[in-house]
Amino acid sequence: MKATAELAIIVPCYNEEEVLPQSIKTLSAELDKMIKSKLVKESSKIVFINDGSADSTWTIIEKHHKKNPHIKGISLSRNFGHQEALLAGLYNTDADIYITVDADLQDDISVIPQMIEHFYKGFDIVYGVRNRRDTDSFFKRSSALCFYKLMKLLGVELISNHADFRLLSRRAVAAMSEFKERNLFLRAIVPLVGFKSCNVYYNRKKREAGSTKYPLKKMILFALRGISSFSAVPLHLITIFGVLISALSFLLMLWTVYGYFNGSTIVGWASLMSVITFFSGITILFMGIIGEYIASIFVEVKKRPTYIIDQRLD
Ligand code: UDP
Ligand code: MG
Q1: From the alpha carbon of 106, which atom of ligand 1 is closest?
Q2: Closest by CA position to 291, among listed 223, 243, 238, 220
Q3: Given this structure, which CATH class describes domain 7-140+158-210+305-313?
Q4: Where are the alpha helices (DSSP H) in 161-314?
Q5: Domain range summary for the chain, segments of one domain joined by +
Q6: Smallest Cα–Cα separation from 281: which of 250, 255, 245, 310?
Q7: Is the pLDDT of residue 177 over 60?
Q8: CA–CA separation, 179 vs 185, rounded Å?
Q9: I need a surface site. Which of 43, 85, 90, 124 has the fewest CB within 10 A?
């Protein structure tokens, strides 16, 4: 194989001082191997995006940048979020192939050469897909499964068991940059880009050090973002439900009028209360769903910057 492509490995980092030194070592060893075997060009690099870390993450990146010319860094002006940090890396790095991977290296980077082989065979997007998830907690596994099922029901195309470990070609990244949305949910945007794509399978490992940067609250907000920016099905369901209820209440009205003329209108307090409480609940729930979409629109129309760069190490 001749080294015809320049690779950039994009690594978002948020408070990763505990795991970063080891990850930098592992990643640069992998990159050296690929350069030596002429799989990728000598000018290939690893770009660490410091997403407003409060710990020594950026100092660690700076230190390794001085020692190793393949290591680059971009520091954001504050914490913008995982997806935003990924875009900052993708849109501010020049390369032929981009591979995004988490800083904790839970995703098995030994499949990277395989991803690159697929690129040379003509694939613009290669998804890293987890074979087994037994290293994740039972809760994380089952909630993820429910989420994939729900998204499918809502008509959103997602690759199951794929997170943000993937290869993108230069033109795939260029096409992605045409998606101007602020509510970023990259794993649903990438399939919309199109081009030829394939999967590479691996086993997900345990986090070696540090703790997850996706606590439950962030996970729920992220899932809501995925639904409200990619599916209008919940809104349609409200409409359908509204039509059914209207039909039902018309029948109820006929029955009430009938009762009135029959003189049997006193009983019915319990049923009245049930109907009122049930429909108050439904009304508030539906207002909430509509509210989620309005909130999404609210974020989109402001067109605030997705990320702001503070410093770069090229
Ligand atoms: N991350 C980030 N900004 C954030 C949160 C997370 O850049 O606001 C990065 C984090 O450093 C890691 C990746 O996103 O490289 C995934 O986070 P983590 O491994 O904690 O998520 P999990 O594997 O637990 O889902
Ligand atoms: Mg992780």
Answers
A1: 23
A2: 238
A3: alpha beta
A4: 170-176, 186-193, 216-230, 233-262, 269-302
A5: 7-140+158-210+305-313
A6: 245
A7: yes
A8: 11
A9: 43
- Whether ligand 1 lies within 6 angstroms of the CB of 212 is answered as yes
- For residue 86, give the ligand 1 atom closest to its CA: 7
CA separation for the pair 118, 8 (Å, rounded): 16
**How far is it, in rounded angstroms, from Cα 123 to Cα 197?**
5
pLDDT one-digit tens code per residue, 36-83: 999 999 999 999 999 999 999 999 999 999 999 999 999 999 999 999
Sheet of 166-169, strands arranged across: 197-202, 125-130, 166-169, 97-100, 7-13, 45-50, 71-76, 309-313
Separation of 106 CA from ligand 2 center, angstroms?
6
- pLDDT band of 18, cuts 50, 70, 90: very high
Q: What does the chain come to in residues?
A: 314
Whole-model pTM: value is 0.80
Alpha helical stretches, state H, 93-209: 112-120, 138-153, 170-176, 186-193
Alpha carbon of 52 to ligand 1 centroid (Å):
12
Other Cβ atoms less than 10 A from the Cβ of 258: the count is 10
